[in-house]
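Section 3.1: Structural characterization of target chains.
Under the original work plan, the team committed to producing a structural model for every single-chain target entering the pipeline before any wet-lab resources were allocated. The record below documents one such target. The sequence was received from the expression subgroup and is listed exactly as submitted; it comprises 113 residues.
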Amino acid sequence: MIQLLFTLVFAQGALALFLMANIPPLRKLIIKILDRVKTGKGPAMVKTLGGTMLVILASSITSIIKIQTRSVRMGTITPTDQILMRTHLLEASLMGIFVFPSLDHRFLTLLGC
């Protein structure tokens, strides 16, 4: 799952880089591809994918809360729980970027970036 999310991060970065670059044939090709995705079955597919990622995000957050309550109850956190917590936090943060991109943009504008 994490490999897929990192692939999405790098693809989004490459797309932004190609759109910022002033290479007209490549830029026109990317814009045509994005227009085709926006028409037809594209919006339904994006909504389905977004809903699926939202459910997985909720599952990761629930697992994080369960691990935290278990560690509070036991008084210490086990190494296995530390690894699971790290994995769930990484998944949740990467999915949060893709599920809520407008919030990411608002945070960047608040920070002045």
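The chain has a mean pLDDT of 81.
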